[in-house]
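Fold Annotation — chain and its backbone

Fields — amino acid sequence, structure tokens

___
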Amino acid sequence: MRSRPPRKASPASAVIILQHWRLIGVRKGASERAGVFRSCPEALFATGALRRGMLGNDMIRPTLALLLAGTALLTSPAMAQQAAAPADQQAQLEQLQQQVIELQKQIDALKAATVKTTPQTTPSWSGAPRLEDKEAGWSFKPRGRLMLDSGYVANPNDAVATRNLGFATRVRRIRLGAEGTIPGGFGYKFEMDFANANVGFADVVVTYAPKNRPFDVTLGNFETLNSLEQITSSRFISFLERSAFNEAFINTRRLGVAVGLKNKPGDLRGSVGLFAAHSIDSTLDNDGWIAASRLVYSPKLGDQQLHFGVNAQHRDFASNNNGAPTSGAGSPSNGQLARYRARPFTQLTDVRFVDTGNFAAKSDTLVGIEAAGIVGPFHVTGEAQWTRVNAYAPGTRFSDPLDFFGAEPVTPSGDPTFFGGYVEAGYYLTGESRGYRDGLWNRTKVLKPFSKGGWGALQLNGRVEYLDLDSGKLKRAFANNFVSGVATPSTNLSRGGQQLGLLTSLIWIPEDYFRLYLQYSYARITGGPLAGTVKPLSTAPLDERSYAVDSVQARASFDF
């Protein structure tokens, strides 16, 4: 006689009972678990069915038989009661199902709260550790750089009486700071410079750049809206120093605010800003104000990156009411005395072979153009900038002669105009492409780092640049007595001179964030304040006497 096959348990009811058994087993102990099995023998059957994968086929039927027999002995009274009251059993089952549903809701809510309160901070590495909570919008990264220079600057004809020429070593920059983001679209960046035992500030800014909005705001101490090379970080320029016209025209950081606007593709950018005429390192001297603007169009044609830009500034020189300035850091003038000068393409000397000297001026206006292109490992770039100075005229009379500090400042015969510019080309011998982003030069990614068996990146650059501080308006200058209004010809001011430069550099980047520079520069000086000293026997006019200044320099640069 064939035996009846065991009754199959309902999977849904079995799961619900097992879940409930697990829960009450934790809270009330084994005695109540037993009560569950007494009230529903299907639970034991369910457990056996669910554990079938753990038992061999030969053991399934004996095991089930034993389980059913034990269950029958334990639950016979309960089965009788169940048969008498099926409606109560169904109600209990529905209650258990509802309890399981409620418990699941509580578990889901607990999981959601746990995920929400746990910081999603992901550390990454970009020269230094970067901590970022992308969901909240916070980030923090230390930043800094170290640049060590060494080299030789020739003393032309050994004629200049100074120890500031020849071999020299200098810590060009030691900067430490931090940058990061703040929820709501805000950001921050600050750096302090400790080079040569002097403590000063570099960039100290707070920014606002809301997501998916076409504008941004920058507030603090930062580069005014100058030329491409001036705004580019010193970590990414092609030579040890920026073009000489940036030094001569005092393009540097100021305290101010700027607003930027860009189109949706991001290839057209414009910025306007208003600045004090001094930097954060200055005192409370009233040095005037600066209005600046810059417009850049940077289309990309396939793999070719193009760059076209214009920039302009107007700088007003304020009076110090005959008080000697306490600091001139970052200011284009002191008490309405303007001066424009530059070194011979190096910071290893403080000697300026081109120098206008001080003269009386109210303001100046700068206009510049910039262009660049990147095609694979090759790049070309060039810039030009003109500066027109609104000078005081000879014989100008003032009701208040205290608009100047010092006595009888020199006045030109008109408004001088100066010019500076360069053309540069470079090539990566190892196949890299020069980094570019958001209208500025950026970091170059090394294709084969030295640590991975490669030679790193090797770049060769050449440049021709020119600075003209010569002006007939300065040559015919006058010493002005602003009280009497009497102007007499001045012999202590001549034209500032011209500087033609031929430069070449070799940059080796064995690893990202580490660079080695080797640079040679040839400066051809015509005129200027030292022409008579270097060429005393020449019969040519002072502003036509020419001589050369050579320099060889090396730099080790590390940044993070």
User: Anything to note?
Assistant: The CA atoms of residues 460 and 506 lie 5 Å apart.
